[in-house]
Amino acid sequence: xxxxxxxxxxxLGLKFGDTVVVGVSGGPDSMALLHLLSLIKKxxxxxxxxxxxNHNVRSESEREKDFLQSYCDNNQILFETMxxxxxxxxxxxxxxxxxxxxxxxxxxxxxxxQYLFTGHHADDLIETILMRIARGSTLRGYxxxxxxxxxxxxxxxxxxxxxxxxxxxLYNKKNNIRYVQDESNNEDKYTRNRYRKYLLPFLKDxxxxxxxxxxKFSNTLIEYNNFIEKHMQTCIKEVYKQNILxxxxxxxxxxxxxxxxxxxxxxxxYQDDLMLISDRHAxxxxxxxxxxxxxxxxxxxxxxKVIKAYASLSFVKEPIEYNEYEIELINYISLPNGxxxxxxxxxxxxxNDICRLYSEEINLPLHIxxxxxxxxxxxxxxxxxxxxxxxxxxxxxxxxxxDMWPILVDTSxxxxxxxxxxxxxxxxxKKEKHDIIIKYY
Length: 441
Prior knowledge:
By secondary structure, this protein is α+β, with helices and mostly antiparallel strands. It has helices at about 1-10, 30-45, 60-75, 90-110, 120-135, 140, 165-175, 190-205, 210-240, 245-250, 255-270, 280-290, 390-395, 400-405, and strands spanning about 20-25, 45-55, 80-85, 115, 150, 155, 240, 245, 295-300, 305-310, 310-315, 325-330, 330-335, 340-345, 355, 365-370, 375-380, 385, 405-410, 415-420, 420-425, 435-440.
């Protein structure tokens, strides 16, 4: 921890009068960071703002907020907090993270802070790298996260990136720092928790200093990414102007630079939310560009629509309230509601998030579209047809959600599946003959 202190004071250069915002959950990592900055405050008289987000998903959340407010009052630290009242349909962690950083950004601008500090550490870096390797990402994404991110008028700083969770726990014990424990961190239903519980201990048993290898790996990827990006920056000036990609000029470049340009655009669109995108999204964009169709579009996470219009490609952020769409299902689609539809090779689940079809009984290709007035489906296990409107009502789907809910149809327009809700009579059981498996998640 001495090295972190020296970094903050000497290398980063925290000085008299600086204003810093610290994202604090109340857990061991962020409380150690808040304590360390408090020590610097005594010597350099920096102004600290503790920013806390009450995610409002656990009964302990309110007590944790009170605990943190009391700590700040006792240590002359300004306390700011917000409560998330509701969540949409998106992945909880992605949505919570987006709202959390939007709030932090608001607090930073309110106080004119030079820095936003978070308690991410070396273990977090390992988990992030492993998760992105497993799901696919950009070269920059595979590096995990940076120690310093330069925003427009402030820096996001993660000073604990070089130390482990265990070092933080020992620091807290040595300095009698109280903190709260989030028991949901032990639940296997969350992907990151599984990496933390099962993969990290194995890696640390193999090499107690494994985090140093991952830090080196991260830094190496960042260096390679920066080198390639310099060449890409020269090329992109000719192919990407005013947020429009010139497809003809783009296709004259080498494949590596083409893909780097796609990743560069994605990184700019999603900025610090790279966990939302994967190499599959880049491949979808490349497939759209090289498609023989002169006019087409695809959807990406966070309601980003990529539109091909003859020799140009554009990225548009659409209003989230309503979208009418119809997209051909080839392999994979990121939907406007933040969910995904994918054709998979195998799947054990038999719930409404999985649909099995036999191609000889339907008219290919398949499409995903929004609802139409008067839509009906032959519901599996029922006699006759049922209106989609009634299916939505039975499942307590709000009017706003209905407008964006995906519907699987074949080329003839026959409704095959309302993902997550109901299947048609054409859905097959695992033991029945089928050659198409579609997953909604």
